From TrEMBL:
The active site is at residue 230. Keywords: ATP-binding, Nucleotide-binding. GO terms for molecular function: ATP binding. This is Fic family protein. Residues 1-40 are annotated as: Disordered. ATP binds at residues 234-241. SUPFAM superfamilies: Fic-like (SSF140931). Residues 145-293 form the Fido domain.
Length: 402
């Protein structure tokens, strides 16, 4: 970045700080020295109000990258939306898994599909399914974006494992990184005191609902402001990236599918987190650059996933002996978005009884399209291994660091 660009981009107001009292109530197991370091007042941030601010002048390369990203997002959305295949659900699940992985929550495509089926697959898989629900809620409520819809997004993430942390803005101090024992002293960043959160989120929603700003610049700033406020006790990162998808839909950058932008962010998490830090110092440019790069990377990876799944479906059409409109043939569409099934799920998806659904499954097993996951006759589940391989390939590409 040239000096002129850096100076212009730094005209955004930085967070300020205020001193707040702190009294630690949990010093069990701490040394006397650690307990002393966790006592006394601490510095909590005060993010600026941004609802009516004019944007800083970003350098030309950054603005071009941001505008190009919006064009490419629209092109990808149109391309995939025109294909008669369930790619919207596939890409939404992929976005949810990538967003969760940024928070160190990882699971294989098989375990995520098992969790969707209601089978035991581990806590991470359950949390990723919660993130799928949050992304779905974000898109569904994009036009009504306000504080209550953001609260609803976060509730979907945590409702199965931490319902006590849902239902509204946080009512306690939180901090990011470090901290001495159970206190914010020495943390990497201390978000605002909880008494400020409601007004700050009202201000953020007003900014997010504006229609006079370049789309990707607005989205990047709104996301960074959200993460700076950190309005919840948990689930902030995943909710903040669900907010990105809501804004992409609200601003018209996407209309048909969920572009897995988090998969692009995952390729350079160090740069992403550094850009959030720069935002708090008053420099908007890095977070805009991060989202422009992430969007471009996500489109490349998403196109590869779509191509891989299209190839799989073409092979299935040649391999299957199921008749047109039979349960087996109709299950091929289901398998692309739900690659682990049982007879109950198949029956529900096709609107038929479980016996006919099982007949369709058996046909696809014979054709080599489905594989039974365990021996025995009760509670049988089946996997479409080629789809799982394609989804795991997408995840592996997203994790390749720059």
């Amino acid at each position: 970045m040239n000096a002129t660009g850096a100076d212009a981009a730094s005209s955004w107001p930085a967070v300020t700080f205020e001193q707040r009292p702190w009294e630690s109530h949990d010093t069990a197991g701490q040394s006397r020295r650690a307990a002393l370091r966790a006592r006394g007042p601490y510095q909590a941030s005060i993010p600026p109000s941004i609802a009516t601010l004019a944007l800083p002048a970003l350098d030309m390369d950054t603005m071009i990258a941001a505008e190009d990203a919006v064009v490419e997002l629209g092109r990808f959305d149109g391309e995939v939306g025109a294909i008669a295949a369930p790619f919207s659900a596939i890409l939404l699940r992929s976005e949810s898994a990538a967003s969760s992985e940024i928070e160190q929550l990882t699971a294989s495509a098989k375990n995520i599909a098992l969790a969707e089926l209601g089978r035991s697959a581990g806590r991470n898989s359950r949390l990723i399914i919660g993130n799928v629900r949050a992304m779905e809620a974000a898109i569904e409520m994009a036009e009504q974006l306000d504080g209550s819809t953001i609260v609803a997004m976060q509730a979907e993430i945590l409702r199965d494992d931490q319902p006590e942390d849902t239902g509204g803005w946080r009512t306690q101090q939180v901090w990011i990184g470090g901290g001495f024992g159970n206190s914010p002293h020495g943390a990497s960043f201390v978000p605002p005191h909880h008494e400020r959160v409601g007004a700050l989120m009202d201000d953020l929603v007003e900014f997010a609902r504006r229609t006079d700003l370049p789309a990707l610049v607005q989205i990047a700033i709104a996301h960074a402001q959200f993460e700076t406020i950190h309005p919840f006790t948990d689930g902030n990162g995943r909710t903040g990236r669900a907010l990105v998808q809501a804004m992409l839909r609200r601003l018209g950058a996407t209309q048909n599918v969920t572009v897995p932008v988090s998969a692009g962010l995952l390729q350079d998490t160090r740069g992403y987190f550094a850009a959030l830090t720069e935002y708090r110092l008053g420099n908007v440019q890095p977070i805009v650059q991060s989202f422009a790069r992430a969007s471009a990377d996500a489109i490349v990876n998403g196109r590869q996933l779509v191509a891989d799944l299209t190839t799989v479906r073409a092979r299935w059409e040649l391999a299957t002996t199921a008749r047109a409109r039979s349960s087996g043939r109709r299950l091929l569409d289901v398998l692309q978005r739900q690659p682990v099934i049982d007879s109950n799920l198949a029956a529900g998806e096709l609107g038929i009884d479980s016996r006919n659904a099982q007949n369709g499954i058996d046909r696809l097993v014979t054709d080599g399209i489905l594989t039974q996951m365990s021996a025995g006759m009760r509670n049988r589940a089946y996997e479409a291994r080629e789809v799982l391989t394609a989804l795991d390939g997408f995840a592996a590409r997203a994790k390749r660091r720059r």
